Amino acid sequence: MLYHKEHEVLFSKRPSFLKLLELDFFDKEKNITINVWRNHGIEPLIPLMRHYFALRNLYVDFQISSYDDSFSFADYIDATVEVLWLDPNILLANSSSDKWSDWLSERMNFLRKISSSPIILVSWIEPGISVKNSIRL
User: Fold this and answer.
1) pLDDT single digits (tens) 11-57
2) Rounded to an integer, what distance in angstroms lies between the CA atom of residue 73 and that of residue 66?
3) What pTM was computed for the model?
4) Contact (Cβ atoms closer than 8 angstroms) between residue 57 and residue 27
5) Which domain holds residue 14?
6) Quick one: which of 37, 34, 38, 39 has its CA closest to 49?
7) What CATH number is attached to the domain comprising 62?
8) Mean pLDDT of the chain
9) How confident is the model at residue 135 (pLDDT cuts 50, 70, 90)?
């Protein structure tokens, strides 16, 4: 059960990083595993996300990959959710946007072959870059 203090911290207009880190109300009875496949850092966000998962009485075990621009999915383990944490600028610097979207489609389709869990793509495209091909799964 969340108390007033936790609600104030979690839902303030500008949540404080330090106040979020001080919260402790996890129910380790309800675990989910999230594989995070990434080519840039996510570590500072993990402790903050745990509190929002705790609102749903979930304890999340984040399995974070090594930095991998190829998204090879090495050391794959079964998970409840697959997250691709992707900075496209690293890849678009050496490729056209069309080749990049084809490559990303291929990588996501490969992940779909080894995992039946939901796949969430977290990424962005900088202003001025157009991606003509849609990503096909």
Assistant:
1) 778 877 777 767 665 555 668 899 999 999 999 999 888 877 877 77
2) 10
3) 0.75
4) yes
5) 4-122
6) 34
7) 3.40.50.1110
8) 82
9) low
**Within a domain: residue 81?**
yes
> 58 burial class (0-12, 13-18, 19+ CB within 10 angstroms)?
middle
Query: If phi over 0 gives left and psi between -120 and 50 gives alpha, with beta otherwise, what is residue 88?
Result: alpha
Taking the C-alpha atoms of residue 4 and residue 2, their distance in angstroms, rounded to an integer, is 7
Residue labelled with tokens 């949540």 = 15
Q: Give the 3-state secondary structure of 105-118.
A: HHHHHHHHHHCCCC
Tokens of 134: 């849609």
How far CA 91 is from CA of 87, 107, 115, in Å, comes to 8, 13, 24
